[in-house]
Amino acid sequence: MNASAKPLAGIDAVAIVVGIVVGAGIFRTPPLVAANLPGEPAILGVWIAGALLSLAGALCYAELASTFPATGGEYSLLRRAYGKRIAVLYGWSRLLVIQTGSLALLAYVYGDYATRLLALGPNSAALHAAIAISAITAIHWTGLRMGARAQRWLTALEIAGLGLLVLAALWAEPAATAPAAGPLESSSIGLALVFVLLTYGGWNEAAYLSAELEGPPARIARVLVSSIAVIAGAYLLVNYALIRALGTNGLAASDAPAADVLQAAWGPGGALLISLMVAAAALASAHGTILTGARSAHALGQDVRGMGWLARWDAERHSPSNALLLQGGIALLLVAAGAMARDGFQLAVEYTAPAFWFFFLAVGVSLFVFRARQPHMVRPFTVPLYPLVPAIFCASCTYLLYSSLAYTGIGALFSAGLMLSGVLLFPFLRADDRDAR
């Protein structure tokens, strides 16, 4: 692809990355972080640490993306580095854990805020979450897609919601500052980082914009660094605003902190307005998750014998209908499990985290694999301070993988078992040799 055929300007790429990462999670994860840390410095510090670790990972992805600009995401990258088995294990994990867990997580964000608009009983958040998954899956299954204009409006509502939240927090009377609850513990830091880095997640998908980015391939590094700087600034400002308005204890106790801040500042009308904005943002994120998740499941069906039904494409509806239905069904099961837990959103985070960090680690290690296997290959961008930066990224992934298993609940162990069950597919892999797609 020549430079004139690359339609994506740098500022457009930054906007896409920020739009992917700044999802509905920032409206829900701050209480979970605050509940695990003793005071404001620790809370803000862990969000800064999350930004730095994300930056280290982004630099690693920038090298991989600029070297293999048309690899098509982690599936193809893992296949190129380790072979088809690991790639299929990743596709299996996306279907059962990563993508469906993320869908349940977003649905619970929607449910927590939709309940502020219309309570549906004792399990209101779970009911709203199930309705959202069913409705969006049905829309995709019928072939109808939310237009680009609607998506832009939903994203605009999300950004407006962040601005409104900060404005309201500065307007409201500051909450009393509680003293630090106690010393920092490694388990608390590890669990808080799981939530923080999940909220920073998404830049890894954007790293593969390099195939469409104007200018030299190395420009993707500047895009990723600029994007993470913008995101980190926004997240720190939001957390500072939440702590100022609610206090650390009030933030830790809140299920819908944005609504609580607007309630304190401008009364019930403000709480309803922000709840509507966050609910719309969660639906926008869930819409994209359903779209991409079903297509990766469709690709998995093409690689595994006996799963061809999953790869069927409905030409009339222009959608992978069977993959959509299976994905929606799994996500609904996860929502039902969350309804029986103390916190459905937290259970979804714990369920998703082990697979997420395992494959993040695998991608990080692949950089060392490619450096050793192809030392003389032209790399438009190379990670600075190699091997220190990728080693830091891999070490953080290893620690977060450990934390997601050691400091969380049964959901994490169950998801790890499901991920490993993908090895049962190995005897059924199709005998082809598509190592790069």
Automatic annotation (TrEMBL):
Membrane-traversing stretches: 7-27, 42-65, 86-111, 117-141, 153-172, 184-203, 223-243, 263-286, 322-341, 353-371, 383-402, 408-429
GO molecular function: L-amino acid transmembrane transporter activity
Cross-referenced InterPro entries: AA/rel_permease1, AminoAcid_Transporter
Topology in membrane: Multi-pass membrane protein
Short name of one Pfam family: AA_permease_2
Alphabetic keyword roster: Membrane, Transmembrane, Transmembrane helix
Intracellular or extracellular location(s): Membrane
Any one GO cellular component localisation term in the record: membrane
PANTHER family on file: AMINO ACID TRANSPORTER, SOBREMESA, ISOFORM B
Protein name: Amino acid transporter
Species whose genome carries this gene: Novosphingobium marinum
